Amino acid sequence: MKLVESNSRKPKNIPKYPTVGEMLKYIKDNKIPMSAEIVIEHVNDNYLWRNHWNYYECGNGTSFDGPEIMLPIHNGFGSIENKKYFALWMHY
């Protein structure tokens, strides 16, 4: 995958995105049950294009519906609803 960066940010201002290691440490430290469902906040394309979010283009960058795009978790993760869900937050 290739990271596509916003032209409006200087390289030193690009955020550090959470890692799998940080996520697993959070799960362990907060005793999130292994049966907790993983959910992700819905992101409208408007956030990606209008707000110039960074994104990854997968494969050759084309599919029937346009480029295949994967978003990094822009705003961290945590548990919600008394640890029933593990959430990945996208909005700034």
Give the CA-CA distance, first to last residue: 23 Å
Structural class: alpha+beta
Q: Can you count the beta strands?
A: 6
From the alpha-carbon coordinates, what is the Rg to the nearest angstrom? 15 Å
Task: Give a quick account of the main beta sheet: strands, pairing sense, barrel closure.
Answer: 3 strands, antiparallel
Strand content range: 15-25%
Give the assembly state of these chains. single chain
- The tally of helices reads 2
Low-confidence stretches: none
Q: What would the average pLDDT be, to the nearest integer?
A: 78
Helix fraction bin: 10-25%
Shape: globular
Count of distinct structural domains = 1
Keywords:
alpha+beta, three-stranded antiparallel sheet, 92 residues, 22% strand, three-stranded mixed sheet
Structure description:
There is one protein chain. With 92 residues, this protein is an alpha+beta fold. It has one domain. The protein is 17% helix and 22% strand. The chain is built from two helices and six strands. It has a three-stranded antiparallel β-sheet, with no helix packed on it. A hairpin with a 4-residue loop joins strand 5 (77-80) and strand 6 (85-88). The longest helix has 10 residues, at 20-29. It is globular, with a radius of gyration of 15 Å. The two termini are 23 Å apart. The mean pLDDT is 78.
Layout of helices and strands:
Blueprint: E1 2-4, H1 20-29, E2 37-40, H2 45-50, E3 55-57, E4 69-70, E5 77-80, E6 85-88
Parallel strand pairs: 2-6
Antiparallel strand pairs: 1-3, 3-4, 5-6
